[in-house]
Amino acid sequence: FRLINYEVPDGVNTIDLGGFTVKGPAARDGYAIIVPEGSEITLTNGTIQSNYGGVKCLGSVTLESTLTLKSSGGIALDIIGGSAVIDGATVNMTSAQKYPTVRVQVSDDVPGKLVMNSGSIGMTFNGAVESALSIEGGDVTINGGTVTSTSSTAVFVGNSDLDNTADSIHGKLTVNDGSIIGVGGYALGGDN
Q1: Which end of the chain is least crowded, N or C, by CB within 10 Å?
Q2: Is the pLDDT assigned to residue 128 strictly greater than 80?
Q3: Segment holding 105, helix H or strand E
Q4: DSSP conformation letters of 165-177
Q5: 137 DSSP β-pair partners
Q6: What is the pLDDT averaged over residues 164-187?
Q7: 146: helix, coil or strand?
């Protein structure tokens, strides 16, 4: 079945996909799942496959090892002022236009946060211009797992304001363990 802009209701703490594949939007009309501000949920046991947006995180989400997020043209995981933990999940973009696989950005001066303990973030489309992981004023900690791009830098670290004004919030990347692999030896790129 297809989910388009499904906003997780209050009181729901876990979404267990039951081993099934859920399809997201086929056109540029949003995300499969939206985690609203103030929510704390766990996604587990299945696949979310989207042509465009996968999961939009304004609240807090944990992606477990039995979860796969796949996108074929848009952001698989978009963290906008919220927080996400990747605990073994696979997050992958198989083709791209101008979007990263995972984007961590600021909302109302609140940096998005990502902690990756294990699992993978990948960009596997040759010719893509975006990184697998784009930190746009967000705060990312990698404790394990792999970030890979076969077409660009694996990780881009930038500011909340791409014009680099005085009000920009600088992106932050902390790597404690894990692997970052980009095409041609370019693992990291950035503008701050």
Answers
A1: N
A2: no
A3: strand 102-107
A4: -TTPPBPEEEESS
A5: 105
A6: 79
A7: strand
Residue 119: name the closest of 106, 132, 128 by CA: 132
Mapped onto helix, strand or coil, the DSSP state of residue 107 is strand
b/e map 32-47, b = 16+ CB within 10 Å: bbbbeeebebbbbbbb
CA pair distance 60, 79, nearest whole angstrom: 9
Burial bucket for residue 185 (CB in 10 Å: 0-12, 13-18, 19+): exposed
Instruction: Kindly tell me if the per-residue pLDDT of 181 is higher than 80.
Output: yes
Q: Would you state the pLDDT for residue 131?
A: 84
Among 174, 179, 173, residue whose Cα is nearest residue 191: 173
Give Cα 19 to chain centroid, integer Å: 21
Calpha distance 54→102 (Å, rounded): 10
46/66 Cα distance (integer angstroms): 6
pTM: 0.92
Distance CA 140, CA 83 (A): 10
Within 13 Å of residue 131, how many CA atoms lie on the same side as its CB? Answer: 22
- Rounded to an integer, what is the distance from CA 163 to the centroid of its chain? 23
Kindly provide the residue ranges of all beta strands, DSSP E only, lying in 11-94, ordered along the sequence. Answer: 14-16, 21-23, 31-35, 40-44, 46-50, 53-57, 60-64, 67-71, 77-80, 83-93
DSSP SS3 for 151: coil
Task: Give the separation between CA 42 and CA 16, rounded to whole angstroms.
Answer: 8
159 secondary structure, DSSP code: B
